[in-house]
Amino acid sequence: MLAKVIHIQETDSTNNYLKQLLSEKRLAEGTIVFSCYQTAGKGQQGNTWESDRGENLLFSIVLYPQIIKASEQFIISQAISLGVADFLNVYTDDISIKWPNDIYWRDKKICGILIENALQENLIKESVCGIGININQKEFRSNAPNPVSLTQITGRSYSLESMQNEVHSKIMMRYLQMMGGGISQIRDEYKQCLFHRSGYHLYNNGETDFRARIKDIETNGRLVLEAEDGMLYRFAFKEVRYK
Length: 243
Prior knowledge:
Layout: E1 5-11, H1 14-24, E2 32-38, E3 57-63, H2 74-89, E4 95-98, E5 102-105, E6 108-120, E7 123-133, H3 150-154, H4 160-179, H5 183-192, E8 201-204, E9 209-217, E10 223-227, E11 232-235, E12 241-242
Parallel strand pairs: 1-2
Antiparallel strand pairs: 2-3, 3-7, 4-5, 5-6, 6-7, 8-9, 8-12, 9-10, 10-11
Helix pairs in contact: 2-4, 2-5
EC number: 6.3.4.15
Keywords: Ligase
Domain BPL/LPL catalytic: 1-179
C-alpha cells in the first residue's frame, strides 16, 4: 500500500483530520496531509499554532513504529526533529533543536512539532506527527515570544508546493534510519543539534534561576543538566525552561 499525499484547504488541525481518517480505515505508512490553513492548530500542552492562510507548511504524517517501546518513544521525536532540521538546513544556516522538539533559527522558533502516539501494550502502535514550519509569513500577531519564518531570515519567498515532497522525504529518511537500526546515530546527532548544546546557560526550574550546561538526553526524553557546582539534575518536559 503506497503512502498518499492529501491536500486540503482548511481543517481545525491536521492531526485531528488524520486521526479521523485513521478511525475509518488503516492508511499506508507515511501518508501525509497538507493543509493551507488550520483554524485551531495544535501545539504542545494545548498551545495553538499561528499561521496565515497559505503561507506556511502545515502537515501531519502517520507512522507505525511498532518496534519502539513506549518507554523509549522519545526517539520518534528525535528522528522527526532531525528530519525537519535536515530540510531547513538546505535553505539556511544556524538551525538547531530546542529540547524537546522545537526547531530554532538562532534564538527564534521556526517550527513546532506535536507527536501523538497510540500504544499497544508496551509498544508504539501508531504515531501521528503534526508539524508547522514558518515559511512565507512576514508578520506574526500572536503573543508567541519569538517566531520567525524562512522568508524573514532570507528575504526570499518560496513555493510551498515544491517544498512538500522535499520535507516529506527528509522526514521519512530519518524515520527509516531509526527503523533500520540507526537509533544510536539519531540520538547522537540529536544531541549535536541541540540549542545551547555547549557552554553554561540560564535556566529556570519553576522556583529559581540557575546556570547549567546540557549533559545528556536520556532515552525517556528527560533533559540532564549539569549545574556549575557539578550537580546533575534531570527534567521532564515543562519542568524546566530556558531563560
